[in-house]
Amino acid sequence: MNPRGHTPVLAREMLGWIAPADDGVYLDATFGGGGYAEAILRAARCTVWAIDRDPDAIARGADLAASFPGRLHLIQGAFGDMLGLLAAHGVAMLDAVVLDLGVSSFQIDDPARGFSFRAEGPLDMRMGRTGQSAADLVNGLPERELADLLHELGEERAARRIARAIVAARAEAPVTTTTQLADLIRDVLPPDRSGMDPATRSFQALRIRVNDELGEIARGLAAAARLLAPGGRLVVVSFHSLEDRIVKRFMIEAAGRNPAPSRHDPGGLVPRAAPGFRLLTPRAVRPDSVEIHANPRARSGRLRALERLPKAAEAETTAP
Length: 320
Prior knowledge:
Blueprint: H1 11-18, E1 25-28, H2 35-43, E2 47-52, H3 55-60, H4 62-67, E3 72-76, H5 82-87, E4 94-100, H6 105-109, H7 134-140, H8 143-154, H9 159-172, H10 178-188, H11 200-210, H12 213-227, E5 228-238, H13 241-254, E6 277-279, H14 289-294, E7 302-308, H15 311-318
Parallel strand pairs: 1-2, 1-4, 2-3, 4-5
Antiparallel strand pairs: 5-7, 6-7
Helix pairs in contact: 1-2, 8-9, 8-11, 9-10, 12-13
């Protein structure tokens, strides 16, 4: 745990893949509690740029930036916009980009942010404190749209029952707090045999929709790939299947690891372009038992890594 009360997940493995070097330039695109940024800064005399859409995260990072004068640069904004955000500071190429996806522990643990069903708070969930809140969605979406949201983004099998109960409740009075919504869901669903709170999937779905997290991931991955120098690496840690599926598909495609077309498909006659990247993790890297014991929130973490090929290597792959 760093002095700001944050325990970064798979930090040792992240450092192993990016191998920070003196004079290198790195991006922690999801600054949060600063765990990855600090680990990189301590590993080498390098420069780290850090992005977070949450103004609270940027404010928390001021002390860390002061501890590494001239080496840590904080930018408020969405990581999907990293190309423009970095270009405004004259940064066009990076030695590595790291992404720690999902909600931060600071956001979950602050009841006033409305991310958690475990404490009373406003039904908010906005990482950047702008745009539609979770309460806006819960009280404004038609029943069918609400059910589709819970099913698609929360993988909630009882989405229609939950949506029906929400619509009935809001007809009496708006649903405005985390505990109101959580209790409503618990009334609809029996306790899960796994011990998981029945409200978990619905809260996940609302948070993802409020912050357009899946769209942000897709934009961020594409931007990160463009920013990597030859030999540069992209390391992504995700925490649930929807995130990991996007990351896995992106890296497989970037590395040219897609299945070849059927021999009956005319498209198979077209030469495939040489991949510009190498997949470093054919399988996701998971936390070991020691890390999970020390930090139970790490248990669902999955790390994947990708490397931009040097120009010479790309040319070799296209040679006859």
